[in-house]
Amino acid sequence: MIKVGIVGGTGYTGVELLRLLAQHPAVEIVAITSRGDAGSAVSSMFPSLRGRVGLKFEDPAVANLKACDAVFFATPNGVAMQQAPELLDTGVRVIDLAADFRLADIAVWEKWYGMQHTSPEWVAKAVYGLPEVNRAAIRDARLVANPGCYPTAVQLGFMPLVEAGLVDPGYLIADAKSGVSGAGRKAEVSSLFSEAADNFKAYAVPGHRHLPEIRQGLSRIAGHPVGLTFVPHLTPLIRGIHATLYARITGEADFQSIYEKRYADEPFVDVMPPKSHPETRSVRAANLCRIAIHRPQGGDTLVVLSVIDNLVKGAAGQAVQNMNIMFGFSETEGLWQLPVLP
Amino acid sequence: MIKVGIVGGTGYTGVELLRLLAQHPAVEIVAITSRGDAGSAVSSMFPSLRGRVGLKFEDPAVANLKACDAVFFATPNGVAMQQAPELLDTGVRVIDLAADFRLADIAVWEKWYGMQHTSPEWVAKAVYGLPEVNRAAIRDARLVANPGCYPTAVQLGFMPLVEAGLVDPGYLIADAKSGVSGAGRKAEVSSLFSEAADNFKAYAVPGHRHLPEIRQGLSRIAGHPVGLTFVPHLTPLIRGIHATLYARITGEADFQSIYEKRYADEPFVDVMPPKSHPETRSVRAANLCRIAIHRPQGGDTLVVLSVIDNLVKGAAGQAVQNMNIMFGFSETEGLWQLPVLP
Amino acid sequence: MIKVGIVGGTGYTGVELLRLLAQHPAVEIVAITSRGDAGSAVSSMFPSLRGRVGLKFEDPAVANLKACDAVFFATPNGVAMQQAPELLDTGVRVIDLAADFRLADIAVWEKWYGMQHTSPEWVAKAVYGLPEVNRAAIRDARLVANPGCYPTAVQLGFMPLVEAGLVDPGYLIADAKSGVSGAGRKAEVSSLFSEAADNFKAYAVPGHRHLPEIRQGLSRIAGHPVGLTFVPHLTPLIRGIHATLYARITGEADFQSIYEKRYADEPFVDVMPPKSHPETRSVRAANLCRIAIHRPQGGDTLVVLSVIDNLVKGAAGQAVQNMNIMFGFSETEGLWQLPVLP
Amino acid sequence: MIKVGIVGGTGYTGVELLRLLAQHPAVEIVAITSRGDAGSAVSSMFPSLRGRVGLKFEDPAVANLKACDAVFFATPNGVAMQQAPELLDTGVRVIDLAADFRLADIAVWEKWYGMQHTSPEWVAKAVYGLPEVNRAAIRDARLVANPGCYPTAVQLGFMPLVEAGLVDPGYLIADAKSGVSGAGRKAEVSSLFSEAADNFKAYAVPGHRHLPEIRQGLSRIAGHPVGLTFVPHLTPLIRGIHATLYARITGEADFQSIYEKRYADEPFVDVMPPKSHPETRSVRAANLCRIAIHRPQGGDTLVVLSVIDNLVKGAAGQAVQNMNIMFGFSETEGLWQLPVLP
């Protein structure tokens, strides 16, 4: 039984962490902070937790986070880099669900996130928390940078191809579609029901913050820089990411078999049979990535379909998976709920 | 560990039973039948179950249901009354999620369901499976008639008032709203996305089959016939029922307190604080009924709000709750998942 | 050809006014104001108007509204009472889509709207703009108080019964369901897609601002105070209100016929055949109210179903209808578009 | 004033044709057929048309279609090729909204549509009804093959690039997303609300019937065969197609300007300003295609975003546009309604 804390628990990744951790048999949630809602019961903001989570939000200044074994940051970008180092220095292990420690190149980070990084030394020590790539390093990490939602779906989808060197790495295309919860629980006109329902649009085509993160990940896997066009879209879903990936084949192989072998031992990646079309709802509320591989009309373009729940494998679930690895629990502990369908 | 079978597993109550039973620690699912899909893997119809449910659909004629301790019927109305008696006679305990055994008055049943009842003797032996009313009888039941979705929400909402005799029992109004999954996984134009999305309508106002079931339940509780107007509506939700109940007060009391006391020991009924507005999503995918009581402007009309997930507390979850009671398991075993929000 | 202006054009009633007025053959839109967006093109905020509406938002201080024949206020409550009198004094005719001039009793208004009324003299002169009740007065009105969305659906639904004196006026129930656009284009967490989609809830059960407006309207029609319980609900629709109305019958009559006669000459009220269930989408984007009357099981409770598009007959369309009456145009001019279905 | 008939009026393209034609000032609808619903009022199936369309469905055998100037076929594939020739021979001009006359190569058609073509001679005479390409030929056409929904969005999006020869024609990618109404008003499980809502998936990745149609169109424009990967997706929208198009640049140019010039005189194609992200709702219920061009990070991949309403510019609206051209009406007659937003 470990003690965990959550910094910034009023957003969607926060409430999803609460849902998962409150059902985790080896975890006791001892503190959850919110500057704005300090003093109010968590279950009055999130009635789904009534009778099951008795905590109140605490002011970050008074919450005893240093007594925790692990602290999750479910805060906006730029908070963890300021508050995590003090905890890390006392030996608390930290999992940051924001972007503060994801990009190794500080200059790139500062350009895309529009602020100065206050903790570059911890960027160097942080481990990028994609277990399917970095499991061993995560085990010993003091600080895990939990991947973004799009980067999880796109990297898991492209990885076997890029590792195998069978596609043109200079011309990858990721057409990705996200549910609206990916924009967070922020009061913004563009996320209103009457704006986002019965509507579909691309956004940030000139450049999205997840682009450098995906590029960094795929370039590390490839061993050299990759060229990537990344177009995100807003879809009238609450949860779910569907990445449709295109790559030009440069060498022949049994692509289905390459994927099946690559993920054979992964508990949370499901390579579907040939000709499958994974649906976002087939992973709804579960820590899963389902992938299908197509080669339309036997041509030279490979199409990979990759789906996750952006709040689970794309955020809170992956964070718990990382925690399981860090603390030596079974990797599936507390993450074995079946998807909710319909 | 008990062995269970499911007859008719291709609908929404079937897949929801599978989701819940596959995660139940004391249950082994040994057979699931479907005449039309015999031979195909359950997980190819419902990819959400890939890797977790290895069964194939079997033809009802060959499935060894008699080796089961319990069999669930998730079939259309009229099937269980024909197939359950043979199983019951061999000692298998049966939970019918359809309407075959819900109404004690055979003539009323035949009028509303438009067919002749083939097993009136088992109607007499069946126990109406609303645990909050009939827990003791359910324990020893050989055959449980699992309540309808609307009847669950409406009866739990009205029950404390009707028991206490504090409202005019001749003039109850239930304005109920259901998600589209309540119509089942049947190919019908009226349930198409393009018909039901961004649309709201009442239906069956002249008379809905759940009306006599609710009337029977409330009349039993009251000890005399009640008068009820019941108007169901179709709402663009996948899951969820919201019942808004109106009753004219005939005697003063602390209504909030009456509800809190009535449900104090019920694990799956949550009486919310005064002035609450329960949301359907606060019970999504969970076996819960949340209730709030209002007396607008201190007038003589009481308004009760009652929400459930129609597929869980309104169907499969309640069926598993009944199974837990019948077999002496903890009532919450396998039903303790937190609601999925957002 | 008349010149019209719109004060506050960045909300949903504003853009809907623009859609209707831009297609009205007798209207020239000469000014639209927005303090926050002054200087930017209307079509850059609302791309649906590209190529058709060339206006820019102007600062209210500089817009030449006094040159208009009519000015619409599509502003938050409390704005028109401050800005309309100056225009009215110069002879401009005003239609206020907010609540400032709807309630004759200033004290009641101030209680429900939480502010002091700054223009009680204009409240006395204003005409409540429900054409089916007040057509003659609207014709000569200098200031029209355009009704609220719920009040339109509920009053049109109850009116024939209340006029005929055939139901118990002390015990009316209005269970109303609204699409999310009714909450406006304001950045609020409760209106986010991820909060409102796949969710259903009642709100403001203790008391909603439209309650006194409906009560005032029905009491005027009845000639004495009526008792009303009004429960609004938030539904995952963009547009649409469905009011389900309950009344206890006190005298026998052919209710269907009463409704048909009452609305025989109304171009925008459609009494449907017996046993109908009007759908909100059957009036989507059109200035229509469709009504059906039921008497379930021949009992003593009448159920009336009334649907409108909250942005059209519940707001902008009704405002244009009022304008047509005020300026002697055909009442259907510019309002004859067919509903959009599916 | 011309007389028109509609064969097969019970689907979504049928009701959309009715909505548009009933408001067209130069058209009288004289007949609408449906084998299954002959004798019933159109407005009882589509209450949105109550009071405005007085027709009844007629049996195709008795309907006097030969008295029409123009007949629209809104039938399943394979019907028009059997029934249209007789009408054509009597001088009636025909617009087929299905696929029967879209593909010039009969063998290709028969392979993708799985039936034998019964009217190859009329395939040779048919004009492909994309006005932005074929306006002159449409003017004199006796038979117009109205384009598919995806083909309209994709061809309009790629056309200026392919005409200008500035991208690699061997490696075009069209990632397209459609609302569910594109699947028609057919009772199918996959189109149910509870299947399609809150869900996103690709489908027909191995090959979709619109692929050869798009290829044929772009190859004609290019003057040589093009290579295209086409991946359609099902999105929880009622109406709307969003095509995200990718092409590798082979020559430098001002791409924005090329698009603006190409479509400068087109009333129904809107080239948006640089950096725009067209939304499907910005064309909802209107005969419009909006397009934006991006070159992310100045790289060698061009991204074109193209949106239409699949039932309007993708079906019924384009059919009316073709009719306007064929009969010498103003091309925008009856098609000038503003989009419905929100």
Can you offer a commentary on this structure?
- Four copies of one chain form a homotetramer.
- With 342 residues, the first copy, chain A, is an alpha/beta fold.
- Chain A has two domains: 2-125, Rossmann fold (3-Layer(aba) Sandwich), CATH 3.40.50; 149-310, Dihydrodipicolinate Reductase, domain 2, CATH 3.30.360.10.
- Helices cover 30% and strands 20% of the residues of chain A.
- In chain A, the strands form two sheets. Chain A has a seven-stranded parallel β-sheet, sandwiched between helices.
- In chain A, helix 1 (12-21) links the parallel strand 1 and strand 2.
- Chain A is globular, with a radius of gyration of 19 Å.
- Chain A starts with a strand and ends in a 16-residue tail after the last helix.
- The model of chain A has no long low-confidence stretch (mean pLDDT 97).
- Chains in contact: A-B, A-C, A-D, B-C, B-D, C-D.
- At the A-D interface, strand 8, strand 9, strand 10, strand 11 and strand 14 of A face strand 8, strand 9, strand 10, strand 11 and strand 14 of D.
